[in-house]
Amino acid sequence: MRMVDLIAKKRDGAALSSGELGWIIEQYAAQAIPDYQMSAWAMAVFLRGMDAHETTALTLAMARSGAMLDLHDVAPLTVDKHSTGGIGDKTTLVLAPLVAAVGLPMAKMSGRGLGFSGGTVDKLESIPGLRTALSGAEFRRLLREVGLVIAAQSGDLAPADKQLYALRDVTATVASLPLIAASVMSKKLAAGADCIVLDVKYGSGAFMRTPEQARELAQMMVNIGQLAGRKVRAVLSSMQQPLGCAIGNALEVREAIGALRGGGPPDLIELCLILSGQLLLMAERADDEATAHAILREALASGAAWAKLRQMVAGQGGDLAYLDEPTRLPCAPVQIALPAPQAGYISAIEGASLGLAVNALGGGRVRKEDTIDPSVGLVMQARVGDQVYLGQPLLMIHAPSMAAVEAVVPQLLAAYQFSAAPVAPPLLVEAVIVL
Amino acid sequence: MRMVDLIAKKRDGAALSSGELGWIIEQYAAQAIPDYQMSAWAMAVFLRGMDAHETTALTLAMARSGAMLDLHDVAPLTVDKHSTGGIGDKTTLVLAPLVAAVGLPMAKMSGRGLGFSGGTVDKLESIPGLRTALSGAEFRRLLREVGLVIAAQSGDLAPADKQLYALRDVTATVASLPLIAASVMSKKLAAGADCIVLDVKYGSGAFMRTPEQARELAQMMVNIGQLAGRKVRAVLSSMQQPLGCAIGNALEVREAIGALRGGGPPDLIELCLILSGQLLLMAERADDEATAHAILREALASGAAWAKLRQMVAGQGGDLAYLDEPTRLPCAPVQIALPAPQAGYISAIEGASLGLAVNALGGGRVRKEDTIDPSVGLVMQARVGDQVYLGQPLLMIHAPSMAAVEAVVPQLLAAYQFSAAPVAPPLLVEAVIVL
């Protein structure tokens, strides 16, 4: 087999066989196929697409390029959750302790933020002392003892995906549905969970701009999961405005703590219940959604979920004093309101612009090597559909300096659109994809 | 400017500006854009195409990536010729001395063979002593003194094209019309000729399979030439069977010598007259094709063209004894006929298969580093349209051993198709493209 022939085959629109895709990934992981051939192939895939068989074959090949975790010796059934990424998405921080509290062990590998989107690992690391670089033995021990562990994505899992993703990032081949599906699912399959819920986001603050794209991606990933023998469901959720109010690492941790302690923004709580509910249904811990939601609401109300987060943070070395008094978490020196530039109903909030503004404030990464400032970010004071008067605070800016504030204000203002007529708030969840 | 954004722009089907293409080539030549980005861009160009402005901008950027020859201090007007490559194409060996003999100085840079197609430099080097690696000073001196020089493509000319071509070759992005046009024309523009004739070949032995593709490519290249202020015309010629009879380096030199000494296959002579005639018309040495052809026929008949080849070979260090007695040129130890496997009219001769067979005999290159055996090759004894009896020799195989013969026979036989009914020979020249 020669890579140049396989590139030509895909370039001409033909489907590659499982054997051919397996060979490509194996050779690429072994550095026997150079990046310049892989990127030409990725562009051909981007423009010519891949069918369901190809996508599954690619996923399995990438999953098998490294360690395949088997956690059944630690827990008979584990669950996992993945979000395709959005602005202000602190769902994992609430959902993970919630499902663990109702008896579904979760051993999760999470990523760091890049571009306009944040990452769970960065958020968790704003808690002083908390470690996410865990050894395999620690990971298993915490799963056994706490029933919940969140570690930084290990390089051992799906290393071919890691290699290919880094290449796609610099060759304009990220936004390909089959490549995204294969990337997400290869890591999820390698991480070993039995039941996986996918939060596939659409809208201005997500990679998928429309519900139709999100549905196509969700369907692909659910299919792959089934072909690989796992239970997988997907929720299509709106990122037409950021989720909850806080955007920024420590700010999001505070909001998540609030949600676990009986408060929290209603959209965040609702999405967590819907995603967690699907995990309960897949794990056969509830017969219907209403029962599942009742179990979960009880775990929130009783403080069981909050207690589970404390256990997890303590287990991973985090200082509970910061969790119990979230005002002690890193705070930005400048906190200032962004006044509404006009009166009216807010008709749109462009999430990607807010995410990039947080990046510009120092809260995210442009390149992987960048360090981040956990204290900075935004806290929204108004949502799509709200009526505001001229000068009413749209959001609070948490910044390192006034100069930093001034630099992002134009971008922030440009993220808002106003309407004279009332505007209906966007639907939070479009559909649940069950095979 | 960021390369990843320019890749995305082309990926999405937009046209790149002259400034953007200039930047890409400049940065790529300076090694500031890595191969993996360039190959993703090339695949996007392959699948999305480029318009006339983009193709011209790319061509000029590649031409300007190295030295731009200006030969006007040596000769007020120089001519050049390029073929898109075919099987048995020894046209340059006849045409170059022919036009130089009638007073059109030709300073030509030629390539080596790769894949199924041969190269003029390899052919010339089968003459003992002859050097094609010439310094700039030698090149100019020979142009001044002889009016004819053929050198191996210098690395100084259009180095960005050389770099990109090597990358396209291993990333399945060769067969893109705009990229082919830009590659050819960047070298021709950099080589400094005032009048350029292009021999754009189509058929089973050429890169372009159909006259329509060849016409599109020819039109692109003629347009580029005009936009760059040169006189350029293109001839669409058939490669539905090899040109002339000989395929293989020394064998083709022998055939070219025959053509310059009053013999030679009629199709070779005809194509040389048509291409040379266009050069005479562009250089305003003749008012019409008939006059041009009369001038050229006279130069062949008088021995002036033959004398010019001898001058050139002597000037470049070649031993004239081999030219004057071509039987002394390298000879293969085994020479054996390929008998017709059936009686009938020959309806097709697949040139690419014959070219690959010569490669397999050792006469061509699979990789650039390969060395070649100048002695081996094929001499066709029958052409499309000829009626043959069972066992009649279709061609002579010149091989290093009987084992080598046996290895290529199945491939050679597969190149022939036969018909019970008479078959018309293919048209040699489809059209001349004049802007």
TrEMBL record, chains A, B:
One of its GO terms (cellular component) is cytosol. Gene3D superfamilies: Nucleoside phosphorylase/phosphoribosyltransferase catalytic domain, Pyrimidine nucleoside phosphorylase-like, C-terminal domain, Transferase, Pyrimidine Nucleoside Phosphorylase, Chain C. InterPro entries: Glycosyl_Trfase_fam3, Glycosyl_Trfase_fam3_N_dom, Glycosyl_Trfase_fam3_N_dom_sf, Nuc_phospho_transferase, PYNP-like_C_sf, PYNP_C, Pyrmidine_PPas_bac/euk, Thymidine/pyrmidine_PPase. Its EC number is 2.4.2.4. The keyword Repeat does not apply. SMART domains: PYNP_C. Pfam families: Glycos_trans_3N, Glycos_transf_3, PYNP_C. GO terms for molecular function: 1,4-alpha-oligoglucan phosphorylase activity; thymidine phosphorylase activity. Residues 345-419 form the Pyrimidine nucleoside phosphorylase C-terminal domain. Signal peptide: none annotated. GO terms for biological process: pyrimidine nucleobase metabolic process; pyrimidine nucleoside metabolic process. Keywords: Glycosyltransferase, Transferase. It comes from the Bacteria. Homodimer. Belongs to the thymidine/pyrimidine-nucleoside phosphorylase family. This is Thymidine phosphorylase. It comes from Candidatus Viridilinea halotolerans.
